[in-house]
Amino acid sequence: MKKLSIEKVLAFMVCTIAFTSNLNAQIRSIDPPIMGWSSWNTYRVNINEDLIKKQADAMVSQGLKEVGYSFVNVDDGFFGYRDEKGVLHAHAERFPNGMKPIADYIHSLGLKAGLYSEAGANTCGSIWDADKNGIGVGLYGYERQDADLFFNQWGFDFIKIDYCGAGQQLELDEKERYTTIVNAIREVCDRNISLNICRWAYPGTWVKDLARSWRISGDIAPTWGHIKHIVSKNLYLSAFAGNGHYNDMDMLEVGRGLKPEEDETHFGLWCIMSSPLMIGCDLTTIPEATLKLLTNPELIALNQDPLGLQAYVAQYENGGYTLVKDIKQKRGKVRAVALYNPTDTICSFRIPLSTLELSGKTKIRDLVLRKDERPVQDFIMFDVVPHGVKILRVEGEKRIEPIRYEAEQAYLNLFDDLGKRKRGVTFMPSSYASGKMTVINLGGQEDNYAQWDNVYSKKGGQYLMDIYYVPIKKGRSSIKEREINDYRMEISVNGNMFCLKDFESEESKGIRRIQHTINLKKGYNTIKIGSRYTWVPDLDCFTLTPKK
Ligand code: GLA
């Protein structure tokens, strides 16, 4: 055998170390969703120094810190008043020593401290909880001064910024308002503050540049209706999360009166959908079963997975949703899968492995029960109880190429859920569509497109692209220039654009198909569908079949 010179060995070692640390840096660069406890769900504005310290103590003594919970967040209720110099003071009775000792105490336990404020002048508590101290204490006009106080003087690490006064009273524009606040924070504070935007609806794609997480729904409460509603709001938002930025499904109501299977569904889905995990119950009296669920390491691992992905809907049948995401390795053979039954009757799931892009003998582990199930071939089949979930780790023999790309899985560049725009791009259920969902109102301007970044081809080459759309209804639009013949699809594949038109317009129901041959490169491809000057027909999905 040829001897390797010492230089070559050294060079190899240097390369390996560089490569490994590069990889580690890459993995580390995706911050997982934050985990911790927040005061609001149990105590609303009735909080005080002693209470917060006891909850912080319990986070450690109950073993929650050990499994990753690290933030202790003081929500609304700590406000005192703003003095004539604009300086904010804490509530004199509830926090007689001010807020710095709170942050210090939390830090002394090796935990992180979170705080709450409002984008407008008056807090939500002042509007909804008759908290008079919430008047005039919001960030409006005091952005830099409060940022300096919260983060530099008091030492907090996280802030949730609400929108009651800003929206209901001042009617400010969300993007502008939050940009002003975040810029002020970034100017004043050189630490990395974890920021949560609380606008109770997905606010728009700009949010990723400003916040680590953002609420996508109104307030949670410990009822099944609330859990189901919040999940429904987040089912199609996976493309808007990622790279350390997350859709926030709100603080957990686990351990606050839901049925055991509902608690499992609640926690399991928050984990697989990569929501921040902020416990909302009293940690000092937490029941054994709740603690067991909240500390389940296999569920937490899904939430804190280094890829930082949110599961997307791969199938919707019989009222049951199958959600899936890659874990550990992108396009690897191991995936996390949730079978979620929001209905009031048992749901029988039958999921072809190909839908999960897997094949061969496939191992399955139930992550809630923490037990292995029998391996399967071809299909995964389970009956799931009403309001229940199965959270599975699924490991196939092979990872296969995706075939179908749903419109509702795409990144929709101009999407928001604020309900302020006329005919804005949005989701529209259709019983004829493949996932029972379509995307409507794409096009009309250059920015209004759908984008799929994860179009994958193992070898590259020619593919037949079948695009499924809803036939166009004549006269649907009140705007007269949007006539049927104006409908177009401008499709770009890795930046190469072609245009499709002449769509079917029968009044019959159903989904139509239009075909085109495209070229994919080996690996990941980006496909965009939009139309600069006209509407795009309502989109169901597209499929890609390699050409022989
Ligand atoms: C809003 C938020 C809640 C909570 C309250 C506080 O309603 O959505 O999470 O912070 O304000 O008043």
Which structural class should the secondary elements be placed in?
A: alpha+beta
Average predicted confidence as pLDDT = 93
Q: What CATH architecture of the largest domain would you give?
A: Alpha-Beta Barrel
Enumerate how many helices there are, as a single number.
13
Strand composition percent? 25-35%
Unique ligands: alpha-D-galactopyranose
- Biggest sheet details: 8 strands, parallel
**How many domain modules?**
4
Distance between the termini: 45 Å
Uncertain segments of ≥5 residues (pLDDT<50)?
1-28
The total of beta strands comes to 31
What best-fitting shape do the alpha-carbon axes yield? Answer: globular
Entry summary:
By secondary structure, the protein is α+β, with helices and mostly antiparallel strands. The protein has 13 helices and 31 strands. Bound molecules: alpha-D-galactopyranose.
In words, what does this structure look like?
By secondary structure, the protein is of the alpha+beta class. It contains 13 helices and 31 strands. Strands 9-8-7-6-5-2-1-10 form an 8-stranded parallel beta sheet. Strands 11-12-13-19-16-17 form a 6-stranded antiparallel beta sheet, with helices on one face. Helix 6 (143-153) packs across helix 8 (174-188) and helix 11 packs parallel to helix 13. The longest helix is centred in the first third of the chain and has 24 residues, at 6-29. It binds alpha-D-galactopyranose. Residues 40, 75-76, 116, 124-125, 162, 198, 200, 219 line the site of alpha-D-galactopyranose. The site of alpha-D-galactopyranose has 10 residues, from helix 5.
